[in-house]
């Protein structure tokens, strides 16, 4: 489970020390009168790199590493692995190797999807981070969705991009 943050429970603490309610971009206040909603904390971070090989029309995906994953096993660790789908069709799926007893795995695996350049703007990459369980259903740790693949591939395979892992829902 998550960690307690005592500073959030102090009486009279009118400031938001973690910046939880101040996230987001648009200006202006909320006129609905509802209290501000806080985003759930991330379930760690995932480093990946994307590139595009124009000659063979291949989207190249490198899953580099994950950091600060939550412990899902009784031993205080997880056995993480990542599944990658190219949305919207989900026809082709890839999966990294399972890394045993770690909360900070180094995957460093590369996968390719055959995608014409014209289709890249309409596609999204979906990364699901799981905890491997030998005798029961694998636990979903969280997920990352990368949109606007055309822009995301411009940095190339040598530049890691870090994304927060959003808590999974099933």
Automatic annotation (TrEMBL):
SUPFAM superfamilies to which the protein is assigned, alphabetical: C2 domain (Calcium/lipid-binding domain, CaLB) (SSF49562)
Disordered: annotated span: 1-41
Top-level taxonomic group: Eukaryota
Domain C2 residues, every copy: 42-163
Gly residues bias locations: 21-31
Cellular compartments per GO CC: exocytic vesicle; plasma membrane
InterPro entries: C2_dom, C2_domain_sf, Synaptotagmin
Gene Ontology molecular-function annotations: calcium ion binding; calcium-dependent phospholipid binding; clathrin binding; phosphatidylserine binding; SNARE binding
Protein's GO biological process: calcium-ion regulated exocytosis
Swiss-Prot/TrEMBL keywords: Repeat
Family: Belongs to the synaptotagmin family.
PANTHER family linked to this entry: SYNAPTOTAGMIN, SYNAPTOTAGMIN-3
Protein name, entry field: SYT3 protein
Originating organism: Syrrhaptes paradoxus (Pallas's sandgrouse)
Gene transcribed to yield this protein: Syt3
């Amino acid at each position: 489970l998550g960690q307690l943050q005592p500073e959030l429970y102090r009486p009279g603490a009118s400031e938001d020390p973690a910046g939880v309610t101040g996230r987001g971009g648009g200006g202006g206040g909320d006129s609905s009168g509802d209290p501000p909603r806080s985003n759930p904390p991330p379930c760690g971070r995932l480093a990946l790199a994307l590139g595009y090989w124009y000659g063979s029309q291949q989207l190249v995906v490198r899953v580099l590493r994950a950091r600060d994953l939550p412990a899902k096993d009784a031993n205080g660790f997880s056995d993480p692995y990542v599944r990658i789908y190219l949305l919207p069709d989900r026809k082709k799926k890839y999966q990294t190797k399972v890394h045993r007893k770690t909360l900070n795995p180094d995957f460093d695996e590369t996968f390719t999807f055959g995608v014409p350049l014209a289709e890249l703007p309409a596609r999204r990459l979906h990364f699901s981070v799981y905890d491997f369980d030998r005798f029961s259903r694998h636990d979903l740790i969280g997920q990352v969705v990368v949109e606007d693949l055309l822009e995301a591939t411009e940095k190339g395979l040598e530049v890691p991009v870090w994304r927060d892992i959003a808590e999974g829902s099933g």
